[in-house]
Amino acid sequence: MKIIPLTVLLFISLTLFQKKALSQNVTSRQTGIDQKLATYHISREEFAYYQILNNKEHRLSAYRDDDLMLLSKIILLHRINDSREKYHVPPVKLDILASRVANQMSRESCDKGFFGHWNLEGEKPFHRYAFAGGTDHVSENASALITTGRISPEFDDIVGLMENAHSGFMKEEAPNDGHKQTVIGPFHNFVGIGTAWCEHGFRYYEEFIDRYLQFRPFQQTIKKGETATIQFRPLDKKLYPYVIIGYYEPPLKPMTRDEINRLNSYNDFSEDIAFQLWPWQIPSANRDGYITLRKRFNKKGLYYIQIYLSKEPYENGRRASNRGKIQASGIVIKVQ
């Protein structure tokens, strides 16, 4: 279980805006991507690699980054990995789908005058990522700037705001350093980065991803009384399924801006545990290494399924704990 901590607000003006959003098109006084690559010390090979991934990803195409915004994300990726290196944890890669999920949240938050970890549909980060097609575990950092001035759309200025937001996370001190701890989580291996700006505001979101499982296609929406079938296997054969926990929550309800703005941290779980499978209860893998989980759901709502992995095979009889294990999935099954 995890509680994602207090969000960051950088206030210049204390009044949320309700004005028409500006265009999201970033501009630049300098010409050409190559010049920007040189300025920010980003290799052409790395940029081309993420261009290919960006072009191959067709989900949430309305929130696709153009080349300049993709470059801004790669620049922030380097800043994030600089932060992680200082705390001796492995680097992360940029995830395109998670970045689009973060872009959507940033855009809606900015345009509609709210800020937090929930959207107006009442969805938390793991809902949004799962509904977009993600299956991994996600942890979110969020930052907002609200100002009486105007946000400059210049590329360097936007990158500067993104860097300032990330730096704000890393300046936190214990015990109030939840965002910092999210950045340097040792099991993260990907990150999505989203941003948006409006007439009097700026949003920045980081979606840290724990990707350790491969899933076969499954039906995400089922009817009450039907059985969900989920098949998965670790990407690394040296990791072992340890516990599977399914959390239930009732159907989501829309939220108002004021309700969202009053909330700070969010729980990465619910109080209603629908089922638990410990090491001695998890089915054996088939010849291809896939474990099949079948669960019948008799109550309408959402089931958030977390699969934990261990670096060591289980050998302790009937005693187990998920403490220190890798939280490797964020599947959400919708029962109608």
From TrEMBL:
Domain of life: Bacteria
InterPro entries: CAP_sf (IPR035940)
Name the record gives this protein: Cysteine-rich secretory protein family protein
Organism per entry: Prolixibacter denitrificans
